[in-house]
Amino acid sequence: MFILINLKAYPCDPLEIANAARDVANDSGVRIAVSPQAADIARVSDTGVETWAQHVSANNYGSYTGSTLAEAVANAGATGTLINHSERRLTLADIDTAVNAASRVDLDTCVCANNPAQIGAVTALSPDSVAVEPPALIGGDASVATADPDIVSNAVESTNSIDKTVDVYCGAGISAGDDVIAARDLGASGILLASGVAKADNPRKALEDLVVPI
Ligand code: G3P
């Protein structure tokens, strides 16, 4: 299972979490990546942890003030990127262009969507992975894999019916190892989580607890 820790804009210490994630990944053998604010990508990447951007823009080089250029996040050390997170939504046309932008610099792409129908639409754009996250469960205590298991299994079915090479992740409310196992049993090959680590009093312990049953 792949574990992607999205730090969003939470008031956490990205280096503390990056160092902990690197150590826990090395000790457990579980693939763990950290997705910090764009301005923190270089120093997070310098810790040695797998580092992802939270977003890349659909533009190339040029007069695009305020954009997040795929080349810039790759040069800073990111090796993957989220696209169309529920809190950073794009049009389908911009998702397509952003996936292509990320592919220019070999970033792993994970396109998020809110439900299995959207998952089907974005799978057709051939990202490396898609992630289903029901907005109502994001930031809460109830894990998507137990509170709404059908949304995960339906997303897996939807993706597999279009392109079996695209991995399916899920996220929202995941904070414990049992949640990760439940997601895996539904067919997901990775999970996205944020508050369970970024808002934890002890992020290292939260990460250690997360990988125990995997
Ligand atoms: O990108 C992951 C995120 O949206 C899930 O957030 O706080 O429910 O783990 P959280």
UniProtKB/TrEMBL annotation:
Reading the lineage from the top rank, the first entry is: Archaea
Gene Ontology terms: biological process: gluconeogenesis; glycolytic process
Write one Pfam family the protein is assigned to: TIM
- Locate the residues binding substrate: N6, L7, K8, I138, G173, A194, S195
* GO CC annotation terms, alphabetical: cytoplasm
Which reactions is this enzyme annotated as catalysing? D-glyceraldehyde 3-phosphate = dihydroxyacetone phosphate
Subcellular location(s) of the protein = Cytoplasm
Main localization (coarse):
cytoplasm
* Gene3D superfamilies membership: Aldolase class I (3.20.20.70)
Residue numbers annotated as active site: H85, E133
- EC number(s) recorded for this UniProt protein: 5.3.1.1
Q: Which InterPro entries match?
A: Aldolase_TIM, TIM_sf, Triosephosphate_isomerase, Triosephosphate_isomerase_arc
Which PROSITE patterns does the record match to this protein? TIM_2
The entry's keywords: Cytoplasm, Gluconeogenesis, Glycolysis, Isomerase
GO MF entries: triose-phosphate isomerase activity
Keyword Isomerase belongs to the record? yes
- In which pathway does this enzyme or protein participate? Carbohydrate biosynthesis; gluconeogenesis; Carbohydrate degradation; glycolysis; D-glyceraldehyde 3-phosphate from glycerone phosphate: step 1/1
What the record says about family reads: Belongs to the triosephosphate isomerase family.
Give the function comment from the record: Involved in the gluconeogenesis. Catalyzes stereospecifically the conversion of dihydroxyacetone phosphate (DHAP) to D-glyceraldehyde-3-phosphate (G3P).
NCBIfam families assigned:
PRK04302.1 (NF003302), tim (TIGR00419)
User: How does the annotation summarize its subunit structure?
Assistant: Homotetramer; dimer of dimers.
Name of the protein described by the UniProt record:
Triosephosphate isomerase
Species source reads: Haloquadratum walsbyi (strain DSM 16790 / HBSQ001)
Gene transcribed to yield this protein: tpiA
